Amino acid sequence: MNSTGISFAQLGIVRRTARAAGMTISAIALFAAACGFAQAASFQCRHNQSSSEKLVCNDPELSSMDDKLSTLYSRAKDLAPDRDALEADRLSQWNWRQTHCTDKACVSNWYSRRITELDADIQQGQQAQIVSLKANLTAQNLPTDAQEAVLQIEGVHPATVAGNQ
């Protein structure tokens, strides 16, 4: 299975058919897209079951929002102090959408809300890491200049740290 959700056997059939018809690579890609071989970032479209998943797979705007949400979730997971809680929330939110969203407006609003929530989780996680880093530097009794150098290397701006003292 490749990244588009097409099996290698299916891809071979598409290529052979396209070659026989004299189609270019661009035409093959267009043909694959037209055949419904879409892939959202967080799930495979060919396995969609709910009306909300079908909406995402058939709407470029919703698919783009799904891509963004998937990226943000990965970042939030890397920063989360409690990954199990983050995953439980993800499943709860996903199940709510699967059950309640049957039109584009609902799905779009759901993505907008989840993106906002994950942005906030990421900001909180980043702040927690900064506070932890600063506490670790203080506990090591490093001179102030050395602490500031480490913070600079880590990309922490003094104003960011000052708000957490």
Counting structural domains, the number is 2
* Residue runs with pLDDT of under 50 for 5 or more positions: 1-12, 25-38, 161-165
What spatial form do the alpha-carbon principal axes imply?
elongated
Strand percent estimate: under 5%
Q: Pairing-aware structural class of the strands and helices?
A: mainly alpha
- CA distance, first residue to last residue: 51 Å
Helix content: over 70%
Number of strands: 0
| Tally of alpha and pi helices | 8
What pattern of helices and strands is seen along the backbone? HHHHHHHH
Quick check: average pLDDT?
78
Rg is 23 Å
Largest sheet: none
Q: Can you describe what's shown?
A:
- The chain has about 160 residues and is mainly α.
- The protein has 2 domains: about 1-35, no CATH class; about 40-160, no CATH class.
- Helix content is about 75%, strand content about 0%.
- The protein contains 8 helices and no strands.
- It has helices at about 10-20, 25-35, 50-60, 60-80, 85-100, 105-140, 145-155, 160.
- The longest helix has about 35 residues, at about 105-140.
- The radius of gyration is 23 Å and the shape is elongated.
